[in-house]
Amino acid sequence: MDDRGAEIRATFERIRRPLQWPMEDFDRRRVRTARFDGFRFSRSKGKAVAGFAVGFALREDVLPVTLEPPEAVAYLFARPTGSALHRDFVLRAGSPVRRLVRESEREGLPYELRPRDEIVAFRHRSLGTVPPELFPLVASDFFLLSYRPFWASGFLERIRRPRRRR
What we know:
Elements: H1 5-20, E1 27-32, E2 36-45, E3 48-57, E4 71-79, H2 84-91, H3 96-106, E5 112-113, E6 119-126, H4 135-152, H5 155-160
Antiparallel strand pairs: 1-2, 2-3, 3-4, 4-6, 5-6
Helix pairs in contact: 1-4, 3-4
């Protein structure tokens, strides 16, 4: 794989402003490893953590499917699996993740649902053949379109304010 570091930096600069204010209520962490270059946004409840990540898969083993790096990826996660947070975030019929997946399908931007895994929903697009001059445009479009179901489903509001049981 060619080094796409400059294109990845240009993409993050391009999407920084549109995605900055909605992310203020989350713990944000920049992640740069040999496998993934991106951001993780999370909320904690005890030792359980749930949230989402956007970035680039630089190796094939980032998601539980076959990838052709570099790939733009957006995914939702909840750990540990089986925790109360995982059940509320993913498994419940009206959970934030299920609502987001339904909305993503309705909008034609489908997230694949894996409710029993730590990475519970994801979408991806290979950028290996995209020319360097178009890479930031294509990647930022992917991320901004991947974000649409977050708004339309009410996902962000639901995980900002955990639902209280009576």
